[in-house]
């Protein structure tokens, strides 16, 4: 069984994730007026319609495209030696240190504490009608799953096929996809919680919600 306290202490000791900003395509680099230690912001607005902090621009064949910050955080590395240079796709240009939010910490804990049932292929996933109805009426933790239970309709290339759950018995605690979205192979679809661990997991989630201090 996962030691939740140890995991939480580990996250508290290093409550960050490091994001390497790389060139999405070839081009000539032009950095924005940033320096190490500066704070940057991710996209905001109801639909993320307001772009994040401008980090740099890449120019290719007289076509200049801006690159905005994917997360809020602090600039910890800037490769100024690449200013004005032509770079290949995938070249690291800068690094941002992002302080984990309360919801990100909870998600990190849940992804380690729960059994993750993952997408076997890139496709759109839909719950079978019986499960879908129960989730809508009674909520996630009302649905108990067991190995072999028919759970999804998989839609790919205009073909629909059934997909059964494979894994330990438990309750649906988390749903990681949205109806109609394409899910990549290997990405989690469900987080399943054994019934005897439900109280423990709910307690640690409540603890994080009460104790974790948001930054910025």
Automatic annotation (TrEMBL):
Domain of life assignment: Bacteria
Protein name in UniProt: Biotin-requiring enzyme
